[in-house]
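Collaborator request, handled under Task 6.
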Amino acid sequence: MENKQTSRRPEETIKTEPIFDGKIISLQVDTVLLPNGAAATREIVRHPGAAAVLALLGDRMLVVDQYRKPLEKFQVEIPAGKLDPGEDPAIAAARELEEETGYRAGKLRPLAAFYTSPGFADEKLYLYIAEELERTEMKLDEDEFLEVEAITFEQAQAYIREGRISDAKTILAVYAWHIYRLTGEIGT
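Structure tokens returned to the collaborator:
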């Protein structure tokens, strides 16, 4: 059944109003022309993108436990961070892994790239798998306070059930790890 309200025609931006330009994100409100000719507004968060790492240390995954102010709670997550302007996501992934965990990857492969919240943000996150880890030292930013843990697959599952792991990138990484454990293959 065809929906007469849908169209493959993109929304045309009529006007963009910058609202906020911060250290990590910017916010704008766009007025757009819809396929039916009506006008609407779209609140858009602009983000430079990020890289995250499924880092495997033997049969364990490296995670960081840190306080997340928007959620008002501590979260267990895989190492991740924003891209610098023009930065290769693989370089950012390697940097964030070492800064946050004190490990360097001997082998770093792309796993997936996805948009975190395409309904209102343009953030694209690049997920990598890191293996053959070598211990170095953590290099946290002055506003970063986190603890590193190497968890088993069973712990990761328990953390998801308990809500200690509740962000999409880490849940996706745990499921990718599960497939890797079952098949020996990782999707690249």
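The cover message to the collaborator said: "The two ends are 36 Å apart (CA to CA). Residues 168-183 form the longest helix (16 residues). Please let us know whether this matches your experimental observations."
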